[in-house]
Amino acid sequence: MSSPARDWLGWAAPLGLAGLVGLAGLGHGFVLDDFPALVQHPLVTGRLPLSEAFLLDQWGSPISAPALMYRPLWPILWRFLWQLFPGEPLPFRILTLVLHLAATGLVLAAGRRFLADRALAAATAVLFAVHPVHAEVLGSSAHHNEIVALVLGLAALLAADTRPRSAASVGLLLLAVLVKESAIVFFPIVLLHLWCRRMLARPVAAGLVTVAAILVAIQLAIPRQPFIIGNLDNLAFDARGWERLWHGLYTVGRGTALMLLPVGLAPFHGYAALDLDAATLMPQAGLGLTTLAAGAAALGLGLARRRPLPVLAAGLACGPLLLQSNLLVRTYSELAERWLYTPSLVVCGLAAFLLLRLLPRLGGGAGRWGRLGLVVLLSANLAQTVRVLAAWRDNPSLVAFGVAQEPAAYQSRYFHAKYLLEAGSLEEGLWFATTAAMIRDSYLASRGRAGHARFAPLAELDRLPVAARFGRAPQALDPDDPCRWVRQSLAATAGLAPPPPPAVLGRLAWLYATQGYGACLPAATAPPP
């Protein structure tokens, strides 16, 4: 193949695959965070003037009150799109596709610049284009900011490498942080890259440090609402002492695991899919410690020898993971797959290097196996991405998928119950409502320090016919006192907000009675015949 043809293919393959993945979600509607962040946002929908843009948090509440996240820039663009196509998800889905194309193109451009190996850069870009961990970012329009942060961060890095004395990189990073605060990690990345390349001009260094300090000060000065639905949303708010460290390392490790082997992807990964018990946290915490140690070693080696590539890899991989870990600052949610959009490009680069450069060094035809491995990995990831993206078409499909992936996660079960009951599936809805209520009560009783092992049987119970679930659950989930489970689950379901009607609670009592637990029911409970 001629050099121009190879060059064309090097661009066409990753961009074509990124477009294919984007097309898979093109017909989807608004989901989850799209509603508070976009559909109901007063600035986006025109209920507030543009002059209020920098006085609101991401969901449109005033920053003078406790806020969630301060990301003022992107809702302005959404506003113009909404004015043209009010209430229509398709234009926002098209924007997702375009942004993912831009991110993939910049990953390829950055790879060509910093790897000095076009084949390796192209392999990294094609793996990035189809990585399944991007499903949340590609499935929800509310997370455009994750893509834009990477686009602007890579653009700033390329601008700094091309024109190191220009202030363009500082301006691009300023915009990136106003879109998504986690883009702050690009400031030290660009600074250290220029230092390693011996191109760091004093005015640019001063600009990077000053702008970063101002942005951090602004973020820290805003009063924060620490959680959305209670600490069930992030156990870091309950972790104390060593628990905080183990929980943070667990988050880093679980994120690393999802990038290396993208199975178990779900919209929610909170309690009781995990708890603060050491037995729950330690296995993934070990992987998290290994990830951060490898990142620190790469960073130290790069700085000691002034080699920019290890510094870039360490910063892009570990920077977002550290922010997500809650070790530096507590975020409002447990592990969120959208935060893995940026670090996944390092994982893709490492996989490409292993298959195309390291494996061939073994000789004996290993190079052919490496290329075959790349094709297999690419195909598997593409299939997994399309499968996961299909779940993001609407809220009922998404939370049903979430329950299948993380059966003990409270939020998935709670929302799944809500949509089932709204659809008239009373007994299915009751099963998920009552188990969600028991997970909530277990959290309140232990403050997140137990529950993962107790609710592990839900994965098996969910596969049974609905009546059999109510028959098996008391023994499986409270073997010491099955009647206690019956009584407590009735009380916990009655305590849901909004409270269920008496007829619904009567139906729940009837389900238990027909499975042989009539004697466990409180005297005041009268199950229907």
Strand-pairing-aware structural class? mainly alpha
Task: Give unreliable regions as ranges.
Answer: none
Counted by DSSP, the helix tally is: 22
Helix-strand topology string: HHHHHHHHHHHHHHHHHHHHHH
Secondary structure: number of strands: 0
N-end to C-end Cα span: 77 Å
Proportion in helices: 55-70%
- Strand composition percent: under 5%
Outline type: globular
| Main pleated sheet | none
Mean pLDDT: 89
Q: Evaluate the radius of gyration.
A: 25 Å
Folded structure, characterized:
The chain has 529 residues and is mostly helical. 64% of the residues lie in helices and 0% in strands. The longest helix has 28 residues, at 278-305. The N and C termini lie far apart (77 Å). The mean pLDDT is 89.
Summary?
This protein is mainly α and 529 residues long. It has 22 helices and no strands. Helices cover 64% and strands 0% of the residues.
